[in-house]
Amino acid sequence: MAAQKYILGIESSCDDTSAAVLAGRTVLSNVTASQDIHREYGGVVPELASRAHQQNIVPVVDTALRRAGISANELSGIAYTRGPGLMGSLLVGGSFAKSMAQALNIPLYGVHHMQAHILAHLINEDNTSNPSFPFICLTVSGGHTQIVRINSPYDFELLGETIDDAAGEAFDKAAKVMGLPYPGGPIIDQLAQAGNPLAFQFGKPKIEGLNFSFSGLKTSFLYTIQKGKKKDPKFIDKHKSNLAASIQFTIIDVLMKKLHAAVKQSGIRQVAIAGGVSANSELRKQLQKHGSEHGWSTYIPPFSYCTDNGAMIAITGHYLSLQKKSDKIAETSLARWSM
Predict the structure, then answer these.
(1) pLDDT beyond 50 at 1
(2) CATH-assigned architecture of domain 6-121+306-322
(3) What pLDDT does residue 38 have?
(4) Where do the structural domains in the chain lie, given as residue ranges?
(5) What is the pLDDT of residue 141?
(6) In whole angstroms, how large is the CA radius of gyration of the chain?
């Protein structure tokens, strides 16, 4: 009987240091250290992020191994985020993974961050079903907004993407304009629960095909705030929940309309969401609503796999290991890396 294969996944693309251990497709541990220092600056500061990764990576990996109940010598391979992301952050995780793989003389797997968000849907999780191939996935995060057709764990077809800003960035910028702390997306989600989503209308982009644009929407939101404050300096305080509900409704409406177009164009009715913004309660609700109305099978990741995490890197490493697609130590990290 073959020995159990254990894959260590290391994620360090932005401001979360995360490590996970998987046995096959089953998560044995998934440990994340977040960086609170960026709240003071209203956004991620790359230099501070890379320094924090240096401080966090050893204890995070050590904790992941201990929680999994294995030693480093029992690992079959190490997967790490090769890109895309902040170069300084990527280098910390990449350098650590390469050194560890070399010391243990085991394979190294460089992982595409956005593919990993999607493949988190293939993790074996109690009470969670996995999509079969092919399926459509809307990946939404602070840096990316894409619609992808997944034909297999190794075959990704990019159908559409943002031509400027990402949906997650639009949430965060709207929050910043309203004077809310960083990260603003979850706060917008909370405030929107008590607001009227039709209270304010904002300019929606008219982009052909399955691509997205959110820069004009951000500008429209800013002008609404500026105009309101001219009439009433307390405009934001008086309309905070309605503003949050309206901007959230508009962003999600744009996402869902494109997703509908992708389903119609491809004929695929298995539809998933992934990425940090897939934690948004309204997006999750709307996907389920549209799924039940239009006969889609919908897949929503557990909250622990929405934001950046080591488990999604490890599951991608698992599939790369099945194909024996290991990386050379000399492979460089990539701040930009197309799907």
Answers:
(1) no
(2) 2-Layer Sandwich (3.30)
(3) 65
(4) 6-121+306-322, 131-301
(5) 87
(6) 20
Q: At which residue do the structure tokens 């929940």 appear?
A: 241
CATH of 131-301 among 3.40.570.10, 3.30.420.40, 2.60.40.10, 3.90.550.10: 3.30.420.40
Predicted confidence (pLDDT) at residue 39 exceeds the cutoff of 80: no
Q: Which of 22, 6, 3 is nearest to 313 (CA)?
A: 22
> 108 - beta bridge partners?
78
Cross-strand partners of 77: 7
Question: d(Cα 118, Cα 144) in Å, to the nearest integer?
Answer: 13
Q: Do domains 6-121+306-322 and 131-301 have the same CATH topology?
A: yes
- Name which of 251, 276, 325 is nearest 13 in CA terms: 276
Percent of the chain clearing pLDDT 90 (strictly above): 84
Whole-model pTM: value is 0.94
Q: Is the peptide bond before 131 cis (omega within 30 degrees of 0)?
A: no
